[in-house]
Each structure stands twice: as C-alpha cells, then as structure tokens.
Amino acid sequence: xxxxxxxxxxxxxxxxxxxxxxxxxxxxxxxxxxxxxxRELISNASDALDKLRFAALSEKELIGANEELAIKLVIDSxxxxxxxxDNGIGMNEEDLASNLGTIAKSGTKEFINSLKxxxxxxxxxxSLIGQFGVGFYSAFIVADTVTVLxxxxxxxxxxxxxxxxxxxxxxxxxxxxxxxxxISPYFDTTKQGTVIVLDLKNDDEAAAFLKEYQVRSxxxxxxxxxxxxxxxxxxxxxxxxxxxxxxxxVLNSRKALWAKNKSEISEEDYKEFYRHISHDFNxxxxxxxxxxxxxxxxxxxxxxxxxxxxxxxxxxxVKSLQLFINKVFITSETDLLLPKxxxxxxxxxxxxxxxxxxxxxxLQENQKVVNIxxxxxxxxxxxxxxxxxxxxxxxxxxxxxxxxxLKEGVHLDYSNKEKLLDLMMFESSSESAGVLxxxxxxxDKLNARxxxxxxxxxxxxxxxxxxxxxxxxxxxxxxxxAKDIEVLFLTDPIDEWVIMSAPEFKDxxxxxxxxxxxxxxxKEEEKAEQAKKKEEFKDLLSKVQNNLAENISEVRFTDRxxxxxxxxxxxxxxxxxxxxKIYQSANQKxxxxxxxxxxxxxxxxxxxxxxxxxxxxxxxxxxxxxxLIYFQALLLEGSKIENxxxxxxxxxxxx
Length: 655
Ligand code: ADP
Ligand code: MG
What we know:
Helix content is 40%, strand content 19%. Helix 4 (106-118) runs antiparallel to helix 5 and helix 20 crosses helix 23 (619-637). The protein has 4 domains: 12-235 and 242-250, Heat Shock Protein 90; 257-389, Ribosomal Protein S5, domain 2 (2-Layer Sandwich), CATH 3.30.230.80; 424-512, Rossmann fold, CATH 3.40.50.11260; 524-654, Four Helix Bundle (Hemerythrin (Met), subunit A) (Up-down Bundle), CATH 1.20.120. By secondary structure, the chain is of the alpha+beta class. The chain has a 9-stranded mixed sheet, sandwiched between helices. Strands 16-15-18-17-20-19 form a 6-stranded mixed sheet, with helices on both faces. A 5-stranded mixed sheet has the order 10-11-14-12-13, sandwiched between helices. Bound molecules: adenosine-5'-diphosphate and magnesium ion.
C-alpha cells in the first residue's frame, strides 16, 4: 500500500514506514500480554517528570509552588476511555512528530531487525512480540484511537496528536473544542505536561481496563516502585449524600528502598521491604545491598531467607529476583539473574544501563545481564561464606533449611564449585544427630591425626544412605569406629551427586566407605597375619565364589569389618546401593552392578565353615551357607532379597 498525505487534510501525516510495521504487529499479534501498555505509558510519564525535575534544577519556576509531580489515571466509563496524564516536561509539535511519528529508539530498531530475520513465520512473530516492550505504540493494543494533548514546559500552545493506528496521524495545535473534549472534563488545562486519551476497543479484554481493580492490580505489578505517585480518580467512599465526590487514590507504594542511600535505611525498613516483596512472614536471615559501579552499573538489594518457602521444590521456576530498569518492573524470570541453585534468594536488581525494550531472549544473551548474574552470584556466595565463618550456628540453621538447594550448585556451577564445596555441611559419625560439620572442620581434624598414615589422611570418608540411624549402625563403619576416624553421613539423595561432581576438596578426595578397598593402615604383623589367613582360606573363598557366581563378581577378605561376618561393596566407580535406590524411586531403569562380597577373616563362622569344608562335608552345606551369607549382606546393605522363599527355607533349616 502506498501512503500519501494528499488524500487527507493538511494536518494529516503518515508514519515512517518502520513505525507502520511495528504498529501493525503490535495491534494484530500481541494477545498474550495486553497489560504492558500501562507499564509503558506510565514509564514514559515518569521519564517526562524526571526531565522536568531535572530542568527545574536550573529553572526553579518550571515547577509551580504548590505543584505536585504526579501521574494521574482517569477511567471514563461512559465514553469507554482511559486517560493517563502527567505534569512532566511535555511535547511541542516538533517533539510529537519526531517522538511519536518515527522510530528513534534502539530497542525498537532491534525489534524490527529480529522481525525481519524471522521472515513470515507468524507463530514466531507472535512469540517474539509478546516479549518486547514496545513503548508508546503499545497503547494501540487496547485502544482504537489514541489522542495525545501535550503542552511543553515554558510554551503556550497545547498540541494535538491523534491516530487510529492505521498508518496516519493528525498533528496540529489543539482547538478549544479539543481541549473541552479531552482535557477540561478531567484536568486543569493550564499546566504543562501530557494527557494521553485511549478510546478503548470494543472487546472484553480492553474493556477490562474500565474496572478500577484491573487498573490497580496492573499498576501494582509493574509500576509499584515508580517514584511519583500514580493516582487513580475514584469515588470518595466516605462522602455522604447523593452527589458523588471524586478523589485521587495513590496506587503505588513508591518505596524503591534499593535506590535510597544505605545510611538512610533502618533495619526495620529492610525487613518491611522484604516482607513486601517476598510475602514471607518471617524476617530475612540477612540482606545484601550494594551498588556495582564502572562499566556495568546496577543496584541490588538481596535477601537470604531464614526459612525455606514451602514451594521451593514444588515449583520449577520460582520467581525470586525482580529486574527493574529505572524502577520499572521488567521481569522476574528465574535463571536470568540468578543461577537456579540460589533461587531461595529474594530481592531486586535495578539497572539503568539496560534498554527497556528488549526481549527475554535478548536479555539472557545481553552481556550486561550475564555480568550482573556473575556479580550477584559471587556476592551471595561470599556473604554465605562470611556467615559460616562468623556465626556457625546461624549458618547451620540456614543450611538445614536451604542447603539442599545450594548443593545443586556443586553439580551445576563449575566455576564456583570450590566455593560451594566450602559451604557444604554434613552430619558425621563423631557428632550427635543434628550437628553439622563443614569439610574444612573435617579436614583439620583428620590432619591433626598424626597417628594415622599419611595415605589414610588423604581422604574424606563418607557413607551414603537413607538416614542417620541406618548409617550409624552400618557394618561399613566398624573399622572406622575402631580407629576413631570420623565418617560423614550423606543422607540427602543429592549428596551422591555432590561427591560425584566434586571428587576432591582441597588436598583430600572423597572416599565412599562402601566402595572399593579400604586400607586404614594395618601394621606389618597384622598384614602378615591376614596374608596367612588368606592363604589358609583360599579354597573356601573360591568355593563360595563359584556358588554365588550368578550374583557376585568376587569374594574377598576385608579389613573393613570387625564384628560383622560379611558385607557387599562395589568398585570405586560403580553405583552403590543408595544411588540405585534413588534411581529406582525416580522410576529410572538402572543396570545393576554385580557386587563384591567381602568376608571378615577374623569371624568365627569363617573358621567353622573352613573346617567343614576341609573335612569334606557335603557340598550342599557350603552352598547353603554361601547363599545365607549373601542374603544377610544384602539386608545389611539395605537392599531387598528377591528370593524370600529361599531365604526363609535356609533360615528355617538352620533352626
Ligand atoms: P522510549 O520511552 O523507549 O523512548 P516510547 O515509544 O515509549 O519510547 O516513547 C517515545 C518518545 O516519546 C519518548 O522517548 C519521549 O520522548 C516521548 N514521550 C512519550 N510519552 C511522553 C510523555 N508522557 N511526556 C513527554 N514525552 C513523551
Ligand atoms: Mg517508553
């Protein structure tokens, strides 16, 4: 279509071609997020007020003596209109032509470029446009006619701009009739500033904005922290008598605490703000308030909660950090500003550096956003580190509530793995239930044990299982108890991944005590004794191994047992019983690894069995005992015996 101005009156102009493109898309494609038009218009009003306030620094008289800088909203339901007015800097004819008739904004330019790249894929266009702030033109999402009347500060003319979003707009000086129609029913006509009148479309979603509660909730969502009061004209509920009286009700809290100077903020202010944004009744554990300066300016006010929110594990995308650009709410996508494993942190980030009109995808790839995320992550981890060092009890309580989430980071955040490991805490065999140990405490204690071989001190010994009770009595602990070596109890399913993702902590490596060989440094004489026994029982071992070949990869003697006869272990790099159970409970198929059966060479039963064996007692007896030993080791490991009938039969026979 070719647009010409000739066929219209002399006041009519056509939009720049690119504007038409944006308009078209905005009007026809933006179904999903109609609310944002109000955010955009309020943000423009706030910008205009900022500009006036700035100009008034050098020209005081620009702001009248009793004049309050404010944004006013009026709903005219008879005329199906919504009106947004500010007493900011205003626009003259030239401003209106260049600001609303052409595209000067970089964000919108980028938007158009992405549209061009996406070609004619309509679905993609729709999803794309839904993620953009589209500035002033978003008014056409809900309005079929948009009228702007504006008077620039220090100028006399009221200018009139109007468009139906059809490719043309009218621009002229406002007539008396225009003023009578669009301003005087609602506002003082002598003031500088801008009145935007939206004649709402005749559909339900647009008409919803004629309802006060709709306007209230959208303002609250996007514009709560705008500095200037946003006032809605509403009927005074206190007025008695028949004639209604109108008052302006302030909708926004205006408390952008993060933008204030720290010295002006009290502890109580912080707590109140936390409750406001988090809906948590408890006080936060601590807050972090900082400004990043330099190439990447932003302000962050972050809170670490004391208690885990009830939905922390139910909801995949908890919206925890809110991103603002100059106090205008943009988004609270998880993952954008915080790694997932810090999703319990609440707060706001405000950056004036970011372009307001960018898509979510573009934000995610925006280098500034990436840097903000890095910076915030570092700050949170160092705050936790400090808390751990300064107040261990407080930190332990935090870790009991939220450590589970933090642990995900060891697995997910390679670059912060060391720091995260340092923040981990576990229960242990040498502490009572509920007392948590850090890896550093563990290491220091083991390092002090000069009575142990150096080789023994190179590990952090851990055992994984369902709960502390089960682990406390585990046969795998026997040798460690005998030597008073501490073992960490890993009872969280995710602990398995923690030690798989980070096999080392400083100079020590994790060692699961139910895997591989355990050598706690036996003395020479003990070793000689063991070797002798091994030789003596050699044939018995291979007999047992043959009997159990179907289930067992190897039968061997071990140092790990003191009182118990036998246990099952896996090789260092294989999946233990606990992890198998975790996978199974998540309904995942796992290839069962064949276990190694370890026998205690000092146990009476072995001696007796060996005697029977040497005295050539019938094969069946050795066979029965082999099976029974295996079954019992299975039970000790916490695994199921599949052939319970057979087990029952064996035990009954024995009785
Ligand atoms: P942006 O706000 O990103 O610049 P918009 O499309 O929202 O883009 O607005 C375009 C321009 O129109 C603004 O930059 C501003 O110069 C002007 N403008 C819009 N609304 C107002 C207003 N209420 N008062 C003064 N100027 C305005
Ligand atoms: Mg704008």
